Amino acid sequence: MPLTFAHLKKAYLDSGYEIRFVPRQQLEGMALDAPAEVKRHLDTNIMGLIMPDEYAIGIAKELDTDERAVTLLHELIHLADPMMEEDEVEALTLEMEETLSPQQFGFLQFLAS
Ligand SMILES: [Zn+2]
Question: pTM of the predicted model, to two decimals?
């Protein structure tokens, strides 16, 4: 069953996670200490990170609002489907970015601002 925006929204609301804006350098440090499933992010520039121990999603504070919204979208896909492979998450992020309604993207922007 493909993930929809409704799934992501529900996963976020059910998780009780807070969204935290963290300097990118600090995110990279956290990723080094993270479990293996988080370490796959080390292949790319780290813009966001799920921090299960802290019930938080970290987003790089250097990003502008739209970039934060897309990063949050990516992390919410991880949250909704923890087993999904990174390249699949990347592809779905791009696909959803293009197909979200203005209201849906606005919800992400609101959370990420
Ligand atoms: Zn990822």
Answer: 0.90
